[in-house]
Amino acid sequence: EAKKTQRGTIHFFSPEMDAALQQRLHLGNALREAIAGNALELHYQPQLAPESRALHGVEALARWTHPTLGRIAPDKFIPVAEETDQIEAIGTWSLGEACRQLALWRAMGIDIPTVSVNLSALHFRNSALPGFIAGVLDRYGLPPRCLTVEITESIMVDRGGRTLETVRAVRDLGVGLSMDDFGTGFSSLSNISRLPISELKIDRSFMQHFEQDGNAQALVRAVIGIGQSLGLDVVCEGVETEPQRRFLVELGCSVVQGYLFSRPLTPDGLVAWLAEQAGAAAGTPRR
Ligand code: C2E
Ligand code: MG
Ligand code: MG
Ligand code: MG
User: Fold this and answer.
1) SS3 39
2) What is the pLDDT averaged over residues 86-94?
3) Cα 183 to Cα 201: distance, rounded to the nearest angstrom
4) Whose CA is nearest to atom 27 of ligand 1?
5) Ligand 1 atom 15, closest CA
6) Hey, which residues does 151 pair with through a beta bridge?
7) Which partner for 144 in 18, 56, 127, 174 could form a disulfide, CB atoms 3.0-4.6 Å apart?
């Protein structure tokens, strides 16, 4: 089968590609139903100070359990959402849901300083985004500093468009702006000086090679140094081992996130985890 694209080139799809395409279309349709049926969920992963373990905030991560296919990872459905024009709907939903949940926690007397929400670079092509965020904060009575928006360096692709203006307008609301997956992809130091970011998140791939790889350690050290000299929070994600945590303490990393502390949790799971942490802090001292 041949398909004509807008540029007029003809692409021939092999049967295998057809099957993959069909699967993505199928997933796209299922995703549309899931969004409409409010079947997506957010799980929350704690972010804490590496030494005191004081809570810095939580990152909201989307979860989807398909009725027959079971759990589908965000690494699979987020790209499908981007291809099938549904990524704005997901971003809109997660901003609202994360703020609703945070307001609920605060009303319960549970002090969670910030919630971080992942947004696709594509969402910033819509200049209505800052107004929408302001509206959500207002609806739930949350000060802007309670919200951090995580973007990736793919935000730099749309140089001609309105994207960067929209990023600045979001930041001007007073919400935090975090550069996620820093050190991968389109990384360049000029990006962090051109964007009004408040936080750098070092990609978890650096932690994966950390113990054996001197280069990974040197890069983490350098990024923490850059963050410090720019007055940014530096979050290290994917922290899985105690030696990694200790090394990050030595380097002066301000925030850590990873399976060593907790996996992403349901809202109830997070409340239970916080209670457990408070108990541990009051009881036996940590090593
Ligand atoms: P991310 O924003 O970089 O999120 C961190 C990912 O690392 C999460 O994967 C988290 O579960 C995982 N992780 C955390 N600690 C550890 C650790 O110690 N070890 C390992 N191996 N992994 C760890 P998850 O939830 O599967 O999400 C994958 C990606 O999907 C996210 O990467 C983000 O780019 C995207 N994503 C997730 N939720 C949303 C969303 O609501 N909107 C958008 N646009 N993207 C989302
Ligand atoms: Mg993230
Ligand atoms: Mg990341
Ligand atoms: Mg990622």
Assistant:
1) coil
2) 98
3) 9
4) 74
5) 258
6) 179
7) 174
